[in-house]
Amino acid sequence: MEAVTLVLTVCLLSAPERCREEVLRLEDTGSVTQCMFRSVMYIAEWSEQHPALRVKKWYCKLPDISQTI
Question: What is the dihedral of CA 12, 19, 37, 26, to 10 degrees?
């Protein structure tokens, strides 16, 4: 089963215009659809560990095969 990537766009609470992407590799999620259903759980856990950041948006994607060659 391929790992799915959850990509978060996160911004500083103290400076909301300063944003970056965080990439979470999810081994236990087999499809993009399952990732989207479970993403809220992963985002909540990540947010608890990073209280100075706010998740602005997110999406799930399959691994890019061309990058692994």
Answer: -100
